[in-house]
From TrEMBL:
UniProt-listed PROSITE patterns: CHAD
Species whose genome carries this gene: Fundicoccus ignavus
Protein name: CHAD domain-containing protein
Domain CHAD: 1-253
SMART domains: CHAD
PANTHER family: CHAD DOMAIN-CONTAINING PROTEIN, SLR1444 PROTEIN
Top-level taxon in the UniProt lineage: Bacteria
Length: 253
């Protein structure tokens, strides 16, 4: 039980550090990404403990984390798009003569979304979420009193990995929503195995690598599709002909 508490508290510290880094330099995409990942990791850990928790307690923590991560969603979406477009511009440097205008527009959108994460409402949400997590302990989580936590943890991790592999076998790779959902499950397994695996007598390195491989494989399937759709949506919203032309050109790659 103490080891579980320590693992959760360690993740709270990671969240606090990443939020501090983000506030110091929100212009750096990796800080926004690191903060969002740390929030999702905490959600994955709590999700792993869900069956041993009171449902209302689980949902109260999960909601705080979900709402905070959602604030960073649009920003992360643009960061991924900018990175994808930057790589495309290098590979296809003659694709459009409006690269400069297009990137200027995308960076303007990025700055706008960044400022939303820094307004009073967003800061209040993050502050409230961190305060709740700082007070987190196993008593508040109302975890069931298990004398076999290591065995339970090992069994649950093995079950989740087996389910993930079975779902991957049955996955329709053209169902982008299904691919995205399974990718999120792979992340949950990976995060839980990384932080809770060491509490058992089994080495979960192979599970962590397998989950990461699945995550990357599914990410490759969805990223291009999502970015292309976003470019088309943005092109429909912009009046500037140069920017519209650049966005549509990139969407066809």
């Amino acid at each position: 039980m103490d080891k579980i508490k320590q693992a959760l508290q360690a993740q709270v510290t990671v969240i606090e550090e990443n939020y501090r880094h983000y506030l110091n330099n929100p212009f750096e995409a990796r800080h926004a990404h690191a903060l969002r990942v740390s929030l999702r990791t905490m959600r994955a850990l709590l999700n792993f403990l869900k069956k041993s928790m009171d449902a209302d307690v689980y949902e109260s923590y999960n909601q705080q984390l979900r709402e905070s991560a959602a604030l960073l969603g649009p920003l992360r979406e643009l960061d991924v798009l900018l990175d994808w477009c930057a790589e495309s511009a290098v590979k296809e440097d003659k694709l459009t003569k409006y690269y400069y205008e297009t990137f200027a527009y995308l960076h303007t959108l990025r700055r706008r979304e960044m400022m939303k994460t820094l307004n009073k409402t967003s800061r209040k949400q993050f502050k409230q979420m961190i305060a709740i997590l700082e007070a987190l302990n196993t008593d508040q989580l109302k975890l069931k009193d298990r004398k076999d936590w290591p065995r339970y943890t090992k069994r649950r991790l093995n079950t989740k990995m087996t389910q993930l592999q079975d779902q991957l076998t049955d996955l329709n790779h053209e169902d982008y929503e299904g691919v995205h959902t399974l990718r999120k499950k792979a992340k949950k397994v990976r995060y839980a195995a990384s932080l809770f695996g060491p509490l058992t007598d089994k080495n979960f390195s192979k599970v962590i690598l397998q989950a990461k491989d699945i995550q990357n494989e599914l990410g490759a399937l969805t990223d291009s599709h999502v970015n292309q759709q976003l470019l088309i949506e943005l092109a429909a919203q912009v009046d500037d002909k140069a920017v519209k032309s650049g966005l549509l050109a990139l969407s066809k790659l």
